[in-house]
Amino acid sequence: MASQPSTYTYSGSCHCRSVNFTFKFPMPLTSTLVTNCNCTLCTKNGTLNICRLKKDISIQGEEKLASYVRSDTGCVHLFCSGCGSSMFTTRDGDLEMYMNVRMVDDVDLEALRYRKHDGRSVQFWMNVEGRG
Ligand SMILES: [Zn+2]
Fold first, then answer.
1. Could you read off the pLDDT tens digit of each residue along the chain, which spans 132 residues?
2. Does the N terminus or the C terminus of the chain have fewer Cβ atoms within 10 A?
3. Which helix or strand (DSSP H or E) is residue 44 part of?
4. Domains of the chain: which residue ranges?
5. How far is the CA of 71 from the centre of ligand 1 (A)?
6. d(CA 24, ligand 1 centre) in Å
7. The model's pTM
8. What fold characterizes domain 8-105?
């Protein structure tokens, strides 16, 4: 019987490929629940999020990221200044970062499982333990 790898490595980028990233995930992305948040910004941008510790995400081209800080939540949304792709969300001082799974290379959105998150009602959402 073939043994399963203990971590899975994924890569991704923005649309213009100025910003690239890699991260390890403890399971195949198809085995986790991706957060489909109904907050006003996720709705506008269409982001579908998974959560990792910042230290476990390697970003190349980080200087191309621009930020939009929500005045109501303090969340920092990072997007590519070249093509506008919405890539990451975090807050100053947080250990976690939320990644837009749409940016993962060759992602099959139809193959993923989702959980709804009521971000319009709840100030902040998920954590690494929740395997967001
Ligand atoms: Zn870009």
1. 567 778 999 999 999 999 999 999 999 999 999 999 998 899 999 999 999 999 999 999 999 999 999 888 888 999 999 999 999 999 888 899 999 999 999 999 999 999 998 888 875 555 444 433
2. N
3. helix 40-45
4. 8-105
5. 24
6. 22
7. 0.86
8. 2.170.150
